[in-house]
């Protein structure tokens, strides 16, 4: 990068949720700017009023807050280049569009909707025939005087080639005859994305444009506008497509059919914002000379460089995201982890007698998402159905008959236990094994199945007894004895 300060922007449209692809674009834009001590700008592109969704701007702002992607300029923080919401910049675009018309880089188009539709086939395929491109000045003035509706179109060169350089994909060229005379200003007076973002990026000093590679083929139209105005072109950084795995093993553009695709959905499913950000960083980028995968945002800022961005499609793997999330959950302060899962347990109906903090300690290293914390303790939330087969375990050489004998022996001793805590309970069960002449693990298995009624649990027999408390543990054991006797 040059000595000029790097300025990037994230310019989402407020049309609904925050897609993880958009969030990745925001992340890469942020990292590219901050790696070199540059500036990161947030701009809301809401000129497509038909697609505007109420509340979507707040979703964008909240997502960036939660992920730690702090912008230096934006709608709610201000800055020298505002306003940062495009619909509030309407007059700015009209001025620049008129300049283009006056200098023969654009023209007024008065074609009706009906005429434009007639240029397309039944599948909607077709292009504008440049009908208004060379209207006589008198005819244009007559239309304007009559107040006839119009759009402003870019006057594309009809010969030659337009070439630009992309930081990821290299030199890109297109024959100018392939370019449509795109609309710059709509009949409602609002600019199209194709025009507004050019003007905004220039006026806001954006010199690194980071976006998905679906814009590679349309970028020649944009650089022609920069050239028309005599403005310096920005550096373009197009990112590889974000894909999802299909049932047949193929991949396609990431969509809802692949699973949760919005930041909000993933958070609701129990993924931590920091884990999501860390995983997204690796979807199209890799650090140089390192196999490290867990990075804080601050660490990513230090190591992230454009030449680490790949050209190949990136596949969003939910299992890999779970791995990242599990690593982040393990690193949480135990108190923080408990506070995060407590509302989940409350909603699931966690009984009042349960020692929830101790249970959280058993669960923390065993879940991949916060929501799994309810599934993994289903046996605590309510008593599971009786299954005699669980008492048979080859490894510990237990049978239902032996387990019944163990439970009937240990039950009175537990009733008289002076302290109901893990170490004391463990010692008591160990003594029972010695008295019966069986393996310690056989006793542990019998007791754990009796109180949990489940083969795999977070924590062993005595840990679960401590979590459930004396009264509930003994009640469950009594029930198990009755069932085994029956």
In short:
The protein is mostly helical and 486 residues long. 44% of the residues lie in helices and 10% in strands.
Write the layout of secondary structure elements.
Layout: E1 7-10, H1 20-35, E2 39-42, H2 56-67, H3 90-102, E3 106-109, H4 113-118, H5 137-146, E4 151-154, E5 161-166, E6 170-175, E7 183-185, H6 193-203, E8 208-212, H7 219-229, E9 235-239, E10 242-245, E11 251-253, H8 263-268, H9 273-281, H10 297-303, E12 314-316, H11 318-331, H12 334-348, H13 356-363, H14 372-375, H15 378-381, H16 400-415, H17 422-436, H18 440-452, H19 461-468, H20 470-485
Main β-sheet: number of strands, strand sense, barrel status?
Answer: 3 strands, antiparallel
**Kindly state the mean pLDDT as a whole number?**
95
Helical coverage, percent range: 40-55%
Q: If strands are numbered along the chain, what order do they take across the biggest sheet?
A: 3-4-7
Question: What is the count of β-strands?
Answer: 12
Alpha plus pi helix count: 20
The geometry reads as elongated
Ranges with pLDDT <50 over ≥5 residues?
none
Q: Span between N and C termini?
A: 78 Å
Rg estimate, integer Å: 32 Å
**Strand content range:** 5-15%
Class computed from helices, strands and strand pairing: mainly alpha
Task: Note down, in words, how this protein is organized.
With 486 residues, the protein is mainly α. It has 20 helices and twelve strands. It has helices at residues 20-35, 56-67, 90-102, 113-118, 137-146, 193-203, 219-229, 263-268, 273-281, 297-303, 318-331, 334-348, 356-363, 372-375, 378-381, 400-415, 422-436, 440-452, 461-468, 470-485, and strands spanning 7-10, 39-42, 106-109, 151-154, 161-166, 170-175, 183-185, 208-212, 235-239, 242-245, 251-253, 314-316. The strands form five sheets. Strands 3-4-7 form a three-stranded antiparallel β-sheet. A three-stranded mixed β-sheet has the order 11-10-12. A two-stranded parallel ribbon has the order 1-2. Helix 7 (219-229) links the parallel strand 8 (208-212) and strand 9. Helix 16 packs across helix 18 (440-452). The longest helix has 16 residues, at 20-35.
């Amino acid at each position: 990068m040059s000595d000029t300060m790097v300025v990037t922007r994230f310019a989402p449209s407020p049309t609904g949720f925050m897609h993880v692809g958009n969030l990745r674009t925001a992340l890469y834009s942020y990292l590219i700017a901050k790696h070199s001590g540059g500036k990161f700008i947030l701009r809301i592109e809401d000129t497509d009023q038909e697609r505007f969704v109420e509340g979507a701007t707040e979703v964008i702002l909240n997502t960036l807050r939660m992920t730690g992607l702090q912008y230096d300029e934006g709608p709610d923080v201000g800055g020298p280049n505002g306003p940062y919401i495009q619909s509030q910049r309407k007059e700015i675009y009209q001025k620049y569009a008129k300049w283009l018309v006056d200098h023969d880089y654009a023209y007024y188009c008065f074609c009706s909707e009906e005429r434009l539709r007639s240029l397309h086939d039944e599948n909607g395929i077709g292009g504008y025939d440049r009908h208004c491109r060379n209207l006589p000045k008198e005819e244009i003035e007559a239309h304007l005087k009559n107040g006839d509706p119009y759009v402003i179109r870019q006057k594309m060169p009809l010969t030659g080639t337009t070439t630009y350089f992309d930081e990821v994909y290299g030199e890109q060229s297109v024959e100018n005859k392939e370019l449509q005379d795109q609309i710059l200003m709509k009949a409602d007076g609002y600019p199209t994305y194709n025009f507004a973002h050019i003007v905004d990026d220039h006026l806001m000093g954006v010199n690194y444009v980071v976006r998905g590679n679906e814009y590679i083929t349309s970028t020649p139209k944009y650089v022609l506008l920069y050239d028309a105005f005599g403005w310096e072109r920005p550096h373009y950084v197009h990112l590889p497509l974000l894909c999802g795995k299909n049932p047949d093993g193929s991949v396609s553009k990431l969509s809802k059919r692949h699973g949760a695709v919005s930041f909000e959905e993933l958070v609701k499913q129990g993924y931590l914002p920091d884990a999501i950000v860390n995983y997204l960083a690796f979807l199209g980028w890799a650090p140089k000379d390192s196999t490290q995968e867990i990075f804080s945002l601050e660490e990513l800022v230090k190591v992230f460089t454009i030449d680490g961005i790949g050209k190949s499609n990136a596949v969003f793997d939910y299992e890999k995201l779970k791995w990242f999330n599990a690593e982040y959950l393990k690193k949480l302060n135990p108190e923080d982890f408990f506070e995060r899962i407590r509302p989940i347990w409350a909603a699931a109906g966690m009984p009042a007698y349960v020692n929830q903090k101790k249970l959280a300690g058993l669960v923390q290293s065993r879940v991949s998402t916060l929501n799994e914390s309810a599934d993994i303790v289903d046996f605590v939330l309510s008593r599971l159905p009786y299954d005699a087969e669980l008492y048979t375990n080859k490894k510990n050489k237990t049978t239902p008959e032996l387990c019944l004998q163990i439970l009937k022996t240990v039950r009175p001793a537990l009733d008289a236990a002076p302290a109901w805590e893990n170490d004391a309970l463990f010692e008591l069960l160990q003594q029972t094994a010695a008295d019966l002449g069986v393996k310690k693990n056989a006793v542990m298995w019998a007791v754990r199945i009796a109180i949990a009624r489940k083969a795999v649990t977070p924590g062993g027999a005595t840990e679960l007894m401590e979590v459930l408390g004396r009264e509930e543990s003994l009640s469950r054991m009594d029930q198990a004895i009755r069932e085994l006797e029956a």
